[in-house]
């Protein structure tokens, strides 16, 4: 199966097929409203606004699996994002991205682009130290490690990049821009 064979539920519980995004560049991201990385919503919205008319889409999947940092209902999450960050991209139903109840789309994405590390810098070191206390073997599995992990899919439906939350949003933007 490929990217276009999957779907995710929207906030109304209706399935949104990834086939709807065929021929577009897509960012699939698990998000949270109460995380240190939450301000990335602003960067994601800016990238969306800049490239949406050129064929860029965002699939935002709120997730409460990481320290309970997305406690609200789908409606509360949507209201927070639109009021605080003026988000215009579609938001999906709050869902799991790891474990037995994970969305099949995330199982597929992780199989295509596994975890390759957090990079360098203070945030990367902090994430590594924190995760070692949660999962000593975190480096050796493809699981989503934290909120705001981003997968970039090209116009052919290939998963071309995975960006951990510690990655520079400028790097993410450059990747998207190179595919537009």
Automatic annotation (TrEMBL):
<feature type="domain" description="Thioredoxin">
    <location>
        <begin position="1"/>
        <end position="180"/>
    </location>
</feature>
<dbReference type="InterPro" id="IPR029759">
    <property type="entry name" value="GPX_AS"/>
</dbReference>
<dbReference type="GO" id="GO:0004601">
    <property type="term" value="F:peroxidase activity"/>
</dbReference>
<protein>
    <recommendedName>
        <fullName>Glutathione peroxidase</fullName>
    </recommendedName>
</protein>
<dbReference type="Pfam" id="PF00255">
    <property type="entry name" value="GSHPx"/>
</dbReference>
<dbReference type="InterPro" id="IPR013766">
    <property type="entry name" value="Thioredoxin_domain"/>
</dbReference>
<dbReference type="GO" id="GO:0034599">
    <property type="term" value="P:cellular response to oxidative stress"/>
</dbReference>
<keyword id="KW-0560">Oxidoreductase</keyword>
<dbReference type="InterPro" id="IPR000889">
    <property type="entry name" value="Glutathione_peroxidase"/>
</dbReference>
<comment type="similarity">
    <text>Belongs to the glutathione peroxidase family.</text>
</comment>
<feature type="active site">
    <location>
        <position position="35"/>
    </location>
</feature>
<dbReference type="InterPro" id="IPR036249">
    <property type="entry name" value="Thioredoxin-like_sf"/>
</dbReference>
<keyword id="KW-0575">Peroxidase</keyword>
């Amino acid at each position: 199966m490929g990217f276009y064979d999957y779907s995710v539920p929207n906030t109304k519980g209706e399935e949104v097929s990834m086939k709807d995004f065929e021929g577009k560049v897509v960012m699939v991201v698990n998000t949270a409203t109460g995380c240190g990385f939450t301000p990335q919503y602003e960067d994601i919205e800016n990238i969306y606004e800049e490239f949406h008319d050129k064929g860029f889409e965002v699939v935002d999947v709120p997730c409460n699996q990481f320290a309970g940092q997305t406690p609200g209902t789908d409606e509360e999450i949507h209201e927070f994002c639109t009021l605080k960050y003026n988000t215009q991209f579609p938001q999906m139903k709050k869902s799991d991205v790891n474990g037995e109840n994970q969305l099949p789309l995330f199982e597929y994405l992780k199989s295509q682009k596994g975890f390759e590390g957090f990079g360098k810098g203070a945030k990367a070191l902090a994430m590594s130290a924190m995760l070692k206390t949660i999962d000593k073997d975190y480096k050796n599995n493809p699981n989503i490690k934290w909120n705001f992990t981003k997968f970039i899919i090209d116009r052919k439906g290939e998963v071309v990049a995975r960006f951990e939350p510690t990655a520079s949003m400028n790097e993410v933007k450059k990747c998207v821009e190179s595919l537009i």
